[in-house]
Amino acid sequence: MNDPKYTGQEFKVIGSRVKRPDGIDKVTGRARYGADMNAPGQLVALMLRSPHAHARIKKIDISKAEKLPGVKAVITAADLPDLTEGNAGLFDTLENSMARDRALYDGHAVAGVAAIDKSTAKKALKLIKVTYEKLPHVTDVDDALEDDAPIIQPRYATEGQHGNLINKGEFGQGDIDQGFAEADVIVERSYKTGQTHQGYIEPHACLASVSPDGTGELWVTTQGHYSYRNTCAQLLGMDIAKLKVTSSEIGGGFGGKTHVWMEPIALALSRKANRPVKMVMSREEVFKASGPTCSTSMEIKIGAKKDGTIVAARAECRYMNGAFPGMWGTLGGMTAFACYSIPNNKAIGVNVLCNRPKVAAYRAPSAPMMAFGVESTIDQLSKELGIDPVELRLKNVAREGTQAPYGPVWGPIGIEPTLEAVRDHPHMKAKLGKNQGRGVACGFWFNIGGQTCSDLNIGPDGTVNLTVGTIDVGGARASLAMIAAEELGITYEDVKVNIGDTSSLGHNDTTEGSRGTFSSGMAAIFAARKAVDVLKERAAKMWQIPVESVIWEDGSARANGKEHSNLSPLTLKDIAKKAGSTGGPIAGHHEATAEGAGVSFASHIVDVEVDPETGKTQILRYTVVQDAGKAIHPDYVEGQFQGAAAQGIGWALNEEYIYGKDGRLQNSGFLDYRIPVCSDLPSIDTKILEIPNPGHPYGIRGVGETSIVPPLGAIGNAVSNAVGVRMYEVPMSPPRILKALDEAGV
Amino acid sequence: MRYESPTTTKEAVALLAQEKGQAYVLAGGTDLLVRLRLDTIEPDLMVDIKRIPAMTEIKKTATGFKIGAAISGATLGKNKALLKAWPGVVEATNLIGSDQVQGRCTMAGNLCNASPAADSVPAMIAAGAKAIIVGKKKRTVAVEKIIIGPGQTILEKGEMIEAISLPAAVKNSADAYLRFIPRTEMDIAVVGVAISLKLKRGVIESARVALGAVAPTPLLVKEAAKAIIGTKLDDEALDALAAACSSACNPIDDKRGTIEYRRRVAGVLAKRTAKIAYERAGGK
C-alpha cells in the first residue's frame, strides 16, 4: 500500500486548474504574515549591528540602555552561553545570530534590545556603547585567497591550505588529461558572478514568547518551522517539545527562510524580559544580515572532437560562503556537467570565507553560477566547431542510463526532451532585428525528499482536513488538497489543508529542495489510502458484511458480489455521518523519510535587444521548457517556471551586492539592488513536459527551482549573439556591457 | 512632532518662521516620509501645504503657467495645456516613482529635495522655469539657482516654494527629457538630459540644455546649447552637443554608475533628447 512507485493511474482532479485556497485572504489582507501577530503586553525588539566589516569587540557597555525607562531587556553574546556541545554548524548559527568576540561582516548583530515601543528601543540602541578594534577585511572571493588576506574564521583554517579555504567538493569521471589530449577544439574561459539576494518581499519577522516555566512559542515567517524549533531550542537550552513554532503565511523565501537569523535573539529577549517580544527586520537588515547567495569566480574548460563529441570538461568554481562555511561549492560541483554525458569530466566547487553575511540557500543554490560558466563555454565551443548550439547540446546530452558526474545512474530524465522541445519551438524560428540576439541554455537541479509526517482527518460532514508540516511557499496547499481529493474520490473543495504547528505533527523537514509537494504529496496519498481502509471497514460494519467484500470507487464504498447487489453504495459523507456509532473519528496518518525524489531539467530560450550606445539589455521574449514529472496544478507549475526565470533575469542583468572599499554594503535597499519590475519582463512563455518520476506514485518531480539555473547562461549567450561580445561577468549591467563593447572595438 | 495643515500661505510661512526646532514642509511626502521612516530626519514640526488653495492649482497666466507647490505628478500629467506647451517638463515629472508615487509627488518637492538625480529639475531648468519663494518677502528665482549641493538649496529658514512658474509656449518651440535607468521604471536616473529649443525656419534659434545625475547639482550647460544653436541638428551639431554634455559632467563613481559611463551616456542621451525636441518643434 505504501509503495511509492509510479503506477500511471488515471486522474480526475490532478492536472486541473482549481482556485487557489489562499487567494481571497491574500488579496483582501486577511492573511497573517510574520509581522501580523500580536500578543498582550508584547515588547518591540531591535538589534544593534556592526558598522564594520571586521572588528574585534573589545567591550559592550549596555548599562545606560538598561537604565532607560521602558527598556525591559538588553542582551549581548554574554547572555547566550555556548550550549552547542561541539556541533560546529550550530555554533556558527549562534555566532551569526549574535557576534561574540568579533563582528564578522557589516550588519552582524552585536546586541539586542526589547522595549515597550519602537522609539524607546531606538533610543536604547543609541545608548549602547561598543568599543571596536577594526580589523583588516576582505569581501571578494578571489582576494580572500590571496596570501595577505585576513583569516575570517581561524577555527576553520586547515594547515597546508589558505585559511579562508574551507574545503573543495570534487566530482567527475574518467581521465580529463587524456580527454583533453583527444580533443580537437578546446575552449577555456574565466567567469565571475555577483552576490544576489532572494529578494523576498516579506522581511524576517517573528513574535516570541518564553514563559518562566520553560515553555515557549514562536510565530514566525519560515520555510521550516521544525528546523527553527530544533535550532532555537538547542541554542537556548530548551526541550524541543516545549517550544511550539507556528509558521505564518510566507511572503517569499526562495531558500532565505530555511535558516534562523534573529529568531533565537527574539526568544532570548522574551525569556529575559518575561514578556512576548516582536521583532521585524528592516529591509536594510534583510540585505545585510540574512542569507544571500554566493558570489563566484570560476574557470571552465571544455574540449570536443570536430564532430561535436565533447570528450573532456573541467570546472573549478570558488563560492563565497560569507563569514561561515556552507556546502555551496560542493553543490555547484555536483551540478556542473549534470546535463551532459561527457566521458572525462571534473568539477571542483571550492568553499571560501569572506567578510559578508552567512550565505543561505537561494533557489537551486549554487547551480546558476556554474551553469553560467558551463553554458557560456558550450556556446563558444559551438561557434568554434561551427555546430548549432542546440544540436551540440543534444549530441552530448545525458540520457537514461548515463552515469551522472556525481555518481547515480540516471533513470528517465528530461534534459533531451526539453532540448528537443526547444529546437522545435516556434520561438526558435521567430525573426530577430538589429541588435537583437537569441540564447539557449540548460539547467539541472536535484530535488530532495526527506522527513515527512501528515494527518488526514475526516469530519462528521465528510469534509476533510489534511494537516501537513511542510509550509506552503509555492502553492502546496492547493496541490495537496487535489491529491487528497483524488485519492478519496471527493471534490477539491471538500478538502482543507492546514499547516500544522510543530506540536501537532512529528518532525517535518523544511520546505526546500523542491520537496514540499513531492514528499507531503506522497504522505497525503498514503494517509488518504489509510483513511480509505478505515472507511471500508466502517461501511462493512454498516452493511454487516465482511470488509473483504467492500471496494472503494469514486468516493464511495461499494459492496462487491451478487449477494450484495441490494446494497446501494455508501458515500464518504454517508460513512462519515455515522462514524460516531461505527468506531469513532476516521483518520489516516503517514510518516516516512520520503525517498526517490526525481531530478529535474530545464532548457530556456531568450531573445534580447542590446542598446549598443548605453549597454542596456531588454528581454524581448522568454520561453521556459521544464520537466515537471507530473504537474499537479499546472497554473502553479507555470508560475514556478516564470518566477524562477524572472529571478534569473534579475540576477543576469542588474542584481548585485555592491561593497565599498570599507567593506560595507552600499546598496541595502530595493532602489539600488535592482530586482526586475513588471515592465522589465515580457510575458514568460512556458512549456511543461511530464516525464514521470518513477519514485513517486503520481510521477511528481520538484518544480520550483530548476528554472533559475539556465537564465544567466541563456542571457549571456543571447547578448553575445546580439552585439558580438561575450560577457564573462554577471550581472551584465549596462556599464559592463558598454565596457565590453568598447574593449571589443564593436 | 507637531503636524499642522494651514489653509493660507501666510499661516504656513508664519508656522515655519516661528518654529525653533526642525521644521519641514510636507507636500507629497514621497521623500519626506521615507526619510522619516529611515530615521534620517527627526522633525519637530511638519507643515502640510496640501490644504492651501494657492498651492493646489495650475493657473494659466498672461506670461505662462503657475503650478502650485502641492500639485501632484498625476494632476500635472492630466493638464492638456501644460502637456502641449511643456511636454518635456510633464514627462520628466511623470517619470518619478510609481503610479502610487505619482498621485503624491510634486515638482516643488522634487526641487527642494535637491537630489542631483531629480528628474523634473533638469526639465524645469531647460524650460526656464522659476521658483516663486515665499517667506519674509516674496522672491522669484531661476530653478537652476535653487540647488547648491546634494540636499542643499538656497531656501532660508522660514522660506518655502509656493509655486513654479513656466513661460508661455512659443510657436515652433518644444522640450524633451530622457533619463537613463537600468530598469524600465521605478528607478533613479543615472543620467538625465533635458533640452528645450526654438526653431526659426528649421534652424535652432535658441536652446537650453540641462543635465541631471552627472554632478553634485543639476547643470545648465550653455556650451551644449551653443553647439546646436544655428544648426538644423545635423550630425556634426549632434556630435558637438554630445561632446559638450560629456565634458560638462562632473560625476562620481558610485553604485549607480561609473564616471566614464555617465559621461558617455550623457552624450548619447543628449543626442536622442535633442532629436525629440527638434521634431516636436516642427523640425525635420
From TrEMBL, chain A:
Residues 28-136 form the Aldehyde oxidase/xanthine dehydrogenase a/b hammerhead domain. Keywords: Molybdenum, Oxidoreductase. GO terms for molecular function: iron ion binding; oxidoreductase activity. Belongs to the xanthine dehydrogenase family. This is 4-Hydroxybenzoyl-CoA reductase alpha-subunit.
From TrEMBL, chain B:
This is Carbon-monoxide dehydrogenase medium chain. Signal peptide: none annotated. GO terms for molecular function: FAD binding; oxidoreductase activity. Gene3D superfamilies: 3.30.465.10, CO dehydrogenase flavoprotein, C-terminal domain (3.30.390.50), Uridine Diphospho-n-acetylenolpyruvylglucosamine Reductase, domain 2 (3.30.43.10). Residues 1-171 form the FAD-binding PCMH-type domain. PANTHER family: XANTHINE DEHYDROGENASE SUBUNIT C-RELATED. The keyword DNA damage does not apply. The keyword Zinc-finger does not apply.
